[in-house]
Structure formats: C-alpha cells, structure tokens
Amino acid sequence: MSFSHFIRRAINGSTSRIALSARSTSSSIFASRSFCSEKKNSNASSTKTAASDVSYYHLNGGPSHMRAAVFWEPGKPLTFEDFHMPRPKANEILLKTKACGVCHSDLHVIKGELPFASPCVVGHEITGEVIEHGQLSDSKIIERFPVGSQVVGAFIMPCGSCSFCSKGQDDLCEDFFAYNRAKGTLYDGETRLFLCNSGKPVYMYSMGGLAEYCVVPAHALAVLPKSLPYTESAILGCAVFTAYGAMAHAAQVRPGDAIAVIGIGGVGSSCLQIARAFGASEIIAVDVQDEKLQKAKFLGATHCVNASKEDAAKTIKEITGGLGVDVAVEALGKPQTFLQCVQSVRDGGKAVMIGLAQSGAKGEVDINHLVRRQIKVIGSYGARARQDLPKLIKLAESGIFNLTAAVSRTCKFEEAPQAYRDLDKGAIAGRAVVEIM
User: Fold this and answer.
1) Is the pTM value of this prediction over 0.90?
2) Where in this chain does the record put each Enoyl reductase (ER) domain (predicted)?
3) Which domain holds residue 312?
C-alpha cells in the first residue's frame, strides 16, 4: 500500500463508532461557588439581572456561575472574573471547557493590533464535555452530541445555513464574520456572557474559550474519540485546522510538491506535519530562532533556514535547484515575510498567506513578476469545520499527525496571562495549551 493511499484511508476510511453514554451533571462535577449573589425561583432555573435583564440559571445539580479570563483594553492584563452561567440557544451547546490553546490571534487582540469588541473573553481553540443543549435544538444535533460527549471545537463556527455554508464553504460563513468577528456575538446578535457583579455583557472571540464553560454553535463541533487526550487535542481547532485549510484548499498540495513554511510557531509547525502527511518531497522550514528550527526537523522539515543569518528566498531557490517551491506558506503576518513568501515560489507556484497582521498592514509584491511568472497569491483563514474537523481527528487518532510533539507547553488556568506574555516574547516554541479541567 502506498503512503498516499494509506493517508487517504486514514482520513476517509470508516471508523468504528464510539458509544458515549450520557452522564448526569452531578454536584461532584460542578463544584459550587459563592462569588455571585442571586435570587432563585422555585425551580432554580432562571431569573433576571437588574442591569441587563438577561436570564440566568443553575445547571441541574450544578453551579449558576463560572470564571473566565477577560480582556479589557490594550495595555491592561487579562483578569479573571465571575460570570453568570452562559446559556445555549437553539442548535448551540454548552460545554465544560477542558483545554484552550494559546494562539497569536488572541495575542493580536490583546495587544490592540486587531480591532475587536471589548471587554471580551478570548480563547478559540478548545476541547470540552457536552453539558447541555439549547432549547429547540435539532434532534439530530442532540443525537450526535449526547450529554457527556467529549468534543473539539473549530474557531470558525459555521452557521450552517448562509449562502457560503450551503455550498460547503464553512470557512467563509457570512454570519461568523458579520456577527462574531465584527461584533463579538453569536448569530442572534447577542453574547452569552454576562458579569456577575454588574450583569453587563462581555463579548466572545469565537466561543470565548478561556473560560470554565462556553457556548458553541453545534456546527463547529466534532466528537473527540476517548483515545485522544483533551489537552493536546485542543490544537485541532485552530493550529491544525488553519494548517489543513491552507494545505488542502488554498495550496491543494500534491505528493512530490516542494513546500516552504515561513514562521514555525503553532500554526507553522502544524503546516510541516500536514505537508509531510500529504506527501511533500521537500519541506523547508524558515524562522529566526534555532530552537524552533531544530524542532521543525522532528516535525517533518527536510531543510531549515534561519532568516536572520541568510537570505531566505535565495536559500530556498538554492535548495530547489534554482526553481523555488511549489507552495510557500507565510504564517507570521509581517510585510517582510509576505515578500519572502512570494519570492520563494517557482513560476506558476502558490504563495499562501495565513498569518494575521496588525490591522492595516500592507504587503508589497513585484507586479510584473506576479503577472509574467503566473504567481498565485492566496489568502487562507482556516479549514471547513463540518467537512475537515473529523478528518483532522482521524489524522491525530492514526498518529499521522503527532499532537504530543506539536504541544510544547501546558499550563494551569491561572497561568494563562503569563502564557500570552511569553508568546509575545517569542518564548514558546510550538503551541501552549491551558488546562481548565
């Protein structure tokens, strides 16, 4: 059996179904707290906050509140605040968050480089346990994600019904960009997060995953087999998800292609593994830190280039016999690396941009070279949740994608602010994950 055939079988082959028994939400699971004060009605289910007139409630046998890390404004540290328990609506699911990845996209928001509604809860790369379904949810959703299921969530949360979702282009979901990215809400135009002390709303970056509980549209979730760990599997929802979208959809990598990845952080290192899984012949890792480049060799890189010591585009051309690579991926979001990416591809090749930049940043390109040499410059934000997330789970379950090697640090919930500070300093090689269990 050829390697490419094995990969196709690993991604598309049938797998045995895992029976998941619904578990009760017992008080042993939900430790009660005393941070919030509220009046309960006879069935302890709902009431109104005076400040916002938004209902809140107790989970059956559990708490009525939770903690989450809040971003207030640029220059101010994340703080942990108490929230009323978020309540899912139709076709949404309440999760007990188990783990949340530490991503540069969150850091861009925290530093004020990307505009976003604030205050907000960041964190968009999560695993969790299904606790409750929103009222009037589709019966098929309830059947697919029974209470007690362990799941992984994609940061692009498709609505499932807009013009793009209807065509299978979940990565361009109109509601996700119009509501979540533009306003920090879910698709009824409302957040699910309200502070205990004031009832005031706090917005959601994706699902607002840096919290003890979060509400996620069901179309953004996939069942996580019990054979995969909660902590490491969190990166499937963004780092691996973004890499797969770039390789499978934007670049359409084929066996034998030569690939360069510029920026070997959490997403860039995932690109190396995906390129290897797709059968790339040469995989060139480019970064300015020798530590990251050393790790890149273990993740699939056949060559490493330190761009602080040599001309990256020139070296890539030398490695490929003067041609350049079939696909170059830019995973940093900087004007300098944007240019390196375009300069590194062969005639007719593809330069795929996946790194988010500071708002308003511009990338330069030689127009004549682009036209005469048929260079394709393609933007890619992520993969397609409903189609691709189950494939990524199979890659991880089969061992083709090594989750353990991709996660370089784990930390406690209370250590999340420090993890972002370390990420900003370049002190995290690979991906850090916050354990919230």
Assistant:
1) no
2) 75-434
3) 251-379
Residue 67: CB atoms within 10 Å:
19
Which is nearest to 285 in space by CA: 232, 348, 330?
330
Q: Are 162 and 138 in contact (CB under 8 A)?
A: no
Query: Which own/partner pairs from 197-201 qualify as long-range (CB within 8 Å, at least 24 positions apart)?
Result: 197/81, 197/82, 198/51, 199/49, 199/50, 199/51, 199/52, 199/54, 199/84, 200/51, 200/52, 201/52, 201/54
Instruction: Indicate the number of domains in the chain.
Output: 2
Q: Domain check: are 130 and 261 in the same one?
A: no
Residue 8 belongs to some domain of the structure: no
Residue 50, in any domain of the structure: no
Query: Do 222 and 259 belong to one domain?
Result: no
Residues in the chain: 437
**pLDDT tens digit sequence for 342-400:** 999 999 999 999 999 988 999 989 999 999 999 999 999 999 999 999 999 999 999 99
